[in-house]
Amino acid sequence: MTVAVTPTTQVDRSAGVTAPAGFRAAGVIAGIKPAGTPDLTVVVNDGPHDVAAGVFTTNKVKAAPVLWSQQVLTAGALKAVVLNSGGANACTGPEGFQDTHKTAEKLAAVLGVGAAQIGVCSTGLIGERLPMDELLPGVDAAVAALGDDAAAGLAAATAVMTTDNVPKQAALTHPDGWSIGGFAKGAGMCAPNMATMLSVITTDAVLDQPHLDHALRNAVGKTFNRLDVDGGTSTNDTVLLLSSGASGITVTPEEFEAALTALAADLVKQLQADAEGVTKHVSITVQGAASEAEALAAAKIVAEDNLCKTAFFASDPNWGRIAMAVGNAPTAFDPALLDITLNGAAICVAGGKGVDRSEADLSGLEIDVVIDLHAGPASATVLTTDLSHAYVEENSAYSS
């Protein structure tokens, strides 16, 4: 997931979606959440361009806002996005889709654009209708609060949070003078099979829609799709990329994809660090696979295995659990050649016991797992977390 960028393009976490020229944002309290915390975000593209791309959940059960945003993005353009936390608007039937449509129409009317130019995202509890009496006036409040400064960008990143503890945003400016910025949210039900739960990324670079779409899909595959907290691909997963072209600088697809991938990789590290109940940041690399797809499949099997995750929580170098998990992956290898290294200690060598377990120190925050299959030239890395008491407690009480 590491992406080489020059020192002048290092990611800045003090900025987000308002860092690129041509964008305004806001995050307000609409009253959707009973706790009275920020719960409605609006991001507006003031142009001159309104090019956009999106990637969405592959879950068969798709929330109403996912269906809406997929539909409007067939035109490859968006003027604005409205996002709410406090309710997923998933499994809510035709009425839920009508609520999404009304939300888009409301923002469109306030901005003086068409509803088909508005993206909609929601996150929260599945199966409940949104409180439209609070949400629609909240759109007015959010538009009134729109700003193009760093505070506005942070407010936008904050209002999409559900079980997140901190907002997650990042931005970078290319030496040529164009910028890219974004925010993301997600702490649980996080095994993105497209993107993460919700993310909006903005840029003032000039790029046509096909190249924008191509860059987004490639970046997502290398970053968001390599995070696996708990194996749950959400019904609402959405990542939207909007280009204002306000810098006036035309960029090459290669330059843009590199910057986008660097930005997305940083957002993913923030998501991993704030996952529900996290006490360990775990990196699982499978190397020596016949193909990248096989390496990725094996890494995901380990990332999602509860026995492995509880061992990580306990700082227990129980490599047998990792070997068991890899053996269940749809990946071809000879078990007699399997090597497993934990934080630099070769604890399993040639399918059997390596150095003493005591040499694998997992007591710190970071755990680095390297699995060598000796079956080919390909590799892949997946980021995950441990399975802690706090994760179980938080998710056992999520809807109560």
Automatic annotation (TrEMBL):
Under catalytic activity, the entry for this protein gives: N(2)-acetyl-L-ornithine + L-glutamate = N-acetyl-L-glutamate + L-ornithine; L-glutamate + acetyl-CoA = N-acetyl-L-glutamate + CoA + H(+)
User: In this chain's numbering, which residues are marked as the site (Cleavage)?
Assistant: A195, T196
Q: Which Gene3D superfamilies match?
A: arginine biosynthesis bifunctional protein suprefamily, ArgJ beta chain, C-terminal domain, L-amino peptidase D-ALA esterase/amidase
Pathway the protein acts in:
Amino-acid biosynthesis; L-arginine biosynthesis; L-ornithine and N-acetyl-L-glutamate from L-glutamate and N(2)-acetyl-L-ornithine (cyclic): step 1/1; Amino-acid biosynthesis; L-arginine biosynthesis; N(2)-acetyl-L-ornithine from L-glutamate: step 1/4
Residues annotated for substrate binding in this entry: T162, K185, T196, E276, N395, S400
Keyword Repressor among UniProt keywords: no
* Site residues by UniProt (Involved in the stabilization of negative charge on the oxyanion by the formation of the oxyanion hole): T123, G124
Active site annotation, chain numbering = T196
Keywords attached to this Swiss-Prot or TrEMBL record, sorted alphabetically, are:
Acyltransferase, Amino-acid biosynthesis, Arginine biosynthesis, Autocatalytic cleavage, Cytoplasm, Multifunctional enzyme, Transferase
Superkingdom of the source species:
Bacteria
Q: Tell me which CDD domains the record gives.
A: OAT
Localisation per UniProt entry: Cytoplasm
SUPFAM superfamilies noted in UniProt: DmpA/ArgJ-like
EC numbers: 2.3.1.35, 2.3.1.1
Similarity section = Belongs to the ArgJ family.
Give the PANTHER family listed for this entry: ARGININE BIOSYNTHESIS BIFUNCTIONAL PROTEIN ARGJ, ARGININE BIOSYNTHESIS BIFUNCTIONAL PROTEIN ARGJ, MITOCHONDRIAL
This chain's function reads: Catalyzes two activities which are involved in the cyclic version of arginine biosynthesis: the synthesis of N-acetylglutamate from glutamate and acetyl-CoA as the acetyl donor, and of ornithine by transacetylation between N(2)-acetylornithine and glutamate.
Subunit organization = Heterotetramer of two alpha and two beta chains.
Protein name per UniProt: Arginine biosynthesis bifunctional protein ArgJ
Q: Which organism is it from?
A: Kribbella karoonensis
Q: What is the lineage of its organism?
A: Bacteria, Bacillati, Actinomycetota, Actinomycetes, Propionibacteriales
Query: By which gene is this protein encoded?
Result: argJ
